[in-house]
Amino acid sequence: xxxxxxxxxxxxxxxxxxxxxxxxxxxxxxxxxxxxxxxxxxxxxxxxxxxxxxxxxxxxxxxxxxxxxxxxxxxxxxxxxxxxxxxxxxxxxxxxxxxxxxxxxxxxxxxxxxxx
Amino acid sequence: xxxxxxxxxxxxxxxxxxxxxxxxxxxxxxxxxxxxxxxxxxxxxxxxxxxxxxxxxxxxxxxxxxxxxxxxxxxxxxxxxxxxxxxxxxxxxxxxxxxxxxxxxxxxxxxxxxxxxxxxxxxxxxxxxxxxxxxxxxxxxxxxxxxxxxxxxxxxxxxxxxxxxxxxxxxxxxxxxxxxxxxxxxxxxxxxxx
Lengths: 116, 194
Known about the structure:
The structure holds 2 protein chains of 2 kinds. Chain A is an all-alpha fold. Chain A has helices at residues 2-12, 20-112. Chain A contains 2 helices and no strands. Chain A is rod-shaped. Chain B has 6 helices and 6 strands; from the N terminus they run ααβααβαββββα. Chain B has one domain (11-178). Mean pLDDT of chain B is 76; it is low at 1-8 and 190-194.
């Protein structure tokens, strides 16, 4: 009885060749999986690399543009300062001229008055 | 041609009185002013004068540029601090100045377009001086709105120089006085406001 059961089990669990088709299928699947798993990280790395490059370029361009803007602003500011000083100088000169003329003319006017 | 105005002595005397009494008042008014906005004068391009002049100055500083200029003034330096304080109430500074290599290379009609804008009630001529010796004419106008000065215009014609200054905003002449001797600004004969 026990021997029969053993024999039945042994017969049921005996190694059976799955066949060439199964083997091919498994091998094909293994190949596909390995390709996919190898390709995915590579794609990810490439994207990451380009993203980093793009970010770096953007950063550098941003710094350059900001620097140029600052340089232009400084130039305009210094030019405006220079113009302001020149304007104040001219205004001061003309106000001074007005006072000088009034003061200088005063004695002349007084002297000229009797004869006028 | 500009001639000496020796036949009208009272005018010069009056001008002197006005200068000595009204300018401090103007300074006080300007100091108190939260002036109403005033449009700058429409200054012609003066192309013909630019061609004849040996030196031309064309300064246009609107409120933005004044703010920018102010940011480049160093508050730690007394002269810069004084200039900064002076321009604090200004909305614009416009200057046209032409220097020539011969006498009266310009015509007074060149500034007529400016003079036509300097009329009452907006503008009042504060001072008009005529020098026989220097053959110089200087007219100083102020713009007054609701009893407050909010603009200044100067037309100065000398034999070899024509200058037009338009300052928009409340300018304090006493503060300008503080700048005398700085930035090459001449010593003004202004009396301190009392």
